[in-house]
């Protein structure tokens, strides 16, 4: 919904918002070409309710704070959940006098949507304005806990003690392969529900694993695994079979690993899952990775990269040749970062090719090649072939061995820009890792433009965070580093004039960070979404000299810091001080 910018600016001035801040918001709106009201919501300039009242005042619709009223299930479910999520609309009351349905929406000007709803429910609606956050908070009321959703799909006859389960299972075996469990337990519905709720809860992975007595379903949400439900063990094989059928895998193969892909429609969206099946002691285990296409270029600054580091990344990735390496553990977002960088570079004038295992996301205009070991299309062989395809830039999914590393280095020195990933704990550790693979130091100094290290931390839920105080002694103890105070002071100085005395400001030895508490909005986890913490190490002359001399990763990091590099710890603490994440979360991912 696009609202008159002048009216919003005037309303902000009436609420005593600083004029410089208003100008920054307007500039961001114009630069990113998004409505000013969306910028206000994203930046949390005003409390959610106050922002809602401001927009309602301008639009002329009454404002409703849905968190302050009780909505019955019957009224809430007048509009199906998938439509409520897509359209940003909630039915919350029936007017007893007029018999109209009271409807709250983030877009009261969408008359076509409102008329469609009136037609479907056979009643007139009375339109109210509410905020997007209000809608999100209420959406959770559509369902009970996930555990109850899944368990109600199991017939009562299967909710029995272990002995009865064994007896019933034995009887079913005697019925033959085509009878029994599939007639009583809705396996297709259960499997579809597992996929649907993983998608709705923004899970990155689904785990289906068996124990001696149960089948466990777990979701990885914001990087952390959560158990959703424990089913009776009897559903395990049918669930695995259903998964194999959808992924186009062999259902009679149970002793070998299999990989496949599921493409399905969830909430009217086309969604893909990468499927990995592995035999374990108590039966096959399935892990499904949710693959979401990158439709738009992600603002790397919004993803956690500082403006200084962003400039370094863009400068080094725009060079005609060289090598950019992103390091970090599995699941730290390395590939996504590279995808967003090459999408920024993508144009008709240059040829960008990739060799990946697997292809995570399809990108329009970029030639993507899938590794295939059965045809000997390895990273090394694929990279050799790509060099004969007249590429300007090449993305190599991962450097795993000496052969691939050597070809990548050679490519970067012969007029190609090479992007790749490497498993290393920090940017400085990436150098000795490559040398251990057999790469000569002098070749590294000639090839590498920069190394990026990254982790993903969970973002604190803005609705339930609270502050907590840490002393220098406590910070030194939990980080096990003696220079933490100097790092914190450096960050604090960024927020004050250089000649300000931190002691006079009362922040010399007592630092305020933030913690997660948990509420309905975040599913009682205290966190919602993730953001990156990075370090960007450029190949400066002192750094190249250190590599040639064979200095350790710690010594290389020290030289990089002296040249202006911000470490991941520093950037993590910066995010924690700004209430974006918690100190505990920074420690968790950095120590991993």
Structure at a glance:
The protein has 592 residues and is an alpha/beta fold. It contains 25 helices and 18 strands.
Q: Which features would summarize this protein structure in a list?
A:
7-stranded mixed β-sheet; 592 residues; 6-stranded antiparallel β-sheet; alpha/beta; GMP Synthetase, Chain A, domain 3; 25 helices; 40% helix; 18 strands; globular; 22% strand; Beta-Lactamase
Strand content: 15-25%
What global shape is seen? globular
- CA-to-CA gap between the ends? 42 Å
Number of strands: 18
CATH superfamily of the domain at 307-455: P-loop containing nucleotide triphosphate hydrolases
The portion of residues assigned to helices is 40-55%
Identify the strand order in the major beta sheet. Answer: 12-11-13-14-10-15-18
What name does the CATH topology of the domain at 307-455 carry?
A: Rossmann fold
CATH class designation of the domain at 307-455: Alpha Beta
What structural class should be given to the helix and strand makeup? alpha/beta
The DSSP helix count reads 25
Largest β-sheet summary: 7 strands, mixed
Computed over alpha carbons, the radius of gyration is 27 Å
């Amino acid at each position: 919904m696009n609202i008159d910018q002048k009216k919003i600016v005037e309303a902000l001035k009436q609420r005593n918002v600083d004029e410089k801040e208003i100008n920054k918001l307007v500039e961001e709106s114009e630069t990113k070409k998004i409505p000013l009201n969306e910028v206000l919501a994203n930046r949390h300039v005003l409390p959610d309710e106050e922002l809602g009242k401001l927009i309602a005042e301008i639009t002329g619709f009454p404002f409703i704070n849905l968190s302050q009223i009780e909505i019955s299930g019957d009224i809430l479910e007048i509009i199906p959940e998938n439509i409520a999520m897509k359209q940003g609309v909630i039915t919350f009351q029936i007017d007893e006098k007029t018999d109209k349905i009271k409807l709250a929406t983030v877009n009261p000007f969408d008359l076509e949507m409102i008329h469609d709803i009136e037609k479907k429910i056979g009643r007139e609606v009375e339109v109210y304005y509410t905020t997007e956050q209000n809608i999100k908070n209420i959406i959770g009321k559509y369902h009970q806990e996930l555990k109850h959703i899944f368990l109600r799909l199991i017939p009562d006859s299967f909710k029995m003690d272990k002995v009865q389960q064994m007896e019933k299972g034995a009887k079913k075996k005697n019925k033959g392969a085509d009878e029994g469990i599939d007639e009583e337990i809705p396996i297709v519905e259960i499997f579809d529900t597992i996929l649907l709720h993983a998608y709705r809860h923004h899970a990155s992975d689904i785990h289906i694993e068996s124990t001696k007595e149960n089948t466990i379903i777990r979701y990885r949400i914001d990087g952390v695994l959560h158990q959703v439900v424990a089913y009776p063990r009897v559903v395990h094989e049918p669930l695995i079979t259903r998964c194999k059928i959808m992924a186009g895998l062999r259902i009679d193969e149970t002793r070998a690993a299999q990989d496949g892909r599921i493409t399905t429609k969830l909430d009217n969206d086309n969604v893909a899952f990468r499927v990995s099946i592995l035999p374990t002691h108590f039966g096959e285990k399935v892990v499904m990775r949710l693959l979401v296409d990158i439709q738009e270029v992600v603002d790397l600054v919004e993803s956690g990269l500082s403006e200084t580091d962003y400039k370094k990344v863009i400068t080094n990735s725009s060079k005609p040749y060289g090598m950019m390496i992103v390091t970090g553990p599995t699941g730290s977002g390395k590939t996504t970062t590279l995808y967003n960088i090459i999408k920024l570079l993508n144009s008709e004038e240059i040829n960008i090719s990739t060799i990946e295992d697997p292809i995570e996301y399809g990108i329009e205009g970029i030639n993507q090649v899938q590794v295939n070991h059965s045809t000997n299309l390895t990273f090394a062989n694929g990279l050799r072939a790509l060099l004969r395809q007249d590429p300007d830039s090449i993305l190599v999914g991962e450097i795993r061995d000496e052969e691939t590393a050597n070809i990548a280095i050679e490519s970067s020195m012969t007029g190609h820009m090479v992007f790749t990933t490497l498993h290393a704990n920090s940017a400085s550790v990436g150098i000795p890792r490559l040398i251990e693979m057999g790469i000569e130091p002098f070749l590294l100094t000639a090839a590498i433009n920069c190394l990026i290290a990254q982790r993903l931390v969970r973002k604190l839920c803005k609705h339930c965070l609270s502050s907590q105080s840490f002393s220098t002694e406590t910070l030194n103890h939990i980080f096990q580093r003696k220079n933490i105070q100097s790092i914190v002071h450096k960050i604090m100085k960024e927020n004050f004039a250089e000649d300000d005395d931190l002691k006079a400001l009362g922040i010399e030895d007592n630092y305020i960070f933030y913690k997660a508490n948990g509420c309905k909005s975040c599913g009682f986890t205290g966190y919602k979404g993730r953001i990156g913490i990075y370090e960007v190490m450029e190949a400066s002359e002192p750094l190249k000299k250190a590599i040639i001399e064979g200095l350790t990763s710690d010594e290389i990091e020290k030289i990089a810091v002296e040249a202006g590099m911000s470490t991941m710890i520093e950037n993590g603490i910066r995010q924690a001080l700004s209430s974006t994440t918690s100190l505990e979360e920074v420690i968790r991912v950095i120590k991993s």
